[in-house]
Write a structure and sequence with these properties.
The chain is mainly alpha-helical. It is built from five helices and two strands. It has one domain. 44% of the residues lie in helices and 5% in strands. Strands 1-2 form a two-stranded parallel sheet. The longest helix is centred in the first third of the chain and has 18 residues. The protein starts with 12 loop residues before the first helix and ends in a 14-residue tail after the last strand.
Length: 148
């Protein structure tokens, strides 16, 4: 499961669709509709929110907005809590963003060099709108290596 802390604009088509699907799975876990992935490390940050379903709904909302910008049709009816907030609800560290940026760039090098080229000048990526950025190291729950 990869639920990116990066702004969804950086994701290629495959990454955006996968992020949508994986976050829908995370929503199902948080809502108690499935027993799979219950202990997935990336769910820790949603569980730390005052209202985990609101947080994951806001996350999905921003993914759907990016999909619309690209003329994709993601079914917003699948979002349990569609009363998305505009302000950041969770935090992400500078180290986590840097690790994810490196990880995404490695994926795009192989999968979609044209999309990678669009972001060649970006050294510090914007976060997903759900997150406010704080100084700090890679998150303790992170399992991906920058190249994997």
């Amino acid at each position: 499961m990869r639920i990116w802390s990066l702004h969804p604009r950086y994701l290629d088509r495959q990454g955006l669709v996968a992020c949508w699907r994986e976050t829908l799975l995370a929503q199902a876990v948080l809502a108690g509709r499935t027993t799979g992935y219950m202990n997935h490390p990336q769910l820790q940050r949603f569980r730390s929110a005052p209202d985990p379903l609101e947080a994951v709904g806001s996350y999905l909302h921003a993914i759907a907005v990016e999909a619309e910008v690209r003329s994709y049709r993601f079914d917003r009816e699948r979002i349990d809590r569609r009363d998305a907030r505009d302000e950041a609800m969770l935090s992400v560290t500078t180290g986590q963003l840097a690790a994810e940026w490196s990880h995404l760039r490695a994926k795009l090098t192989v999968r979609n060099p044209d999309v990678l080229a669009l972001w060649a000048t970006v050294t510090v990526p914007d976060p997903h709108p759900l997150f406010r950025v704080l100084e700090g190291p890679v998150a303790s729950w992170e399992r991906a290596t920058p190249s994997g």
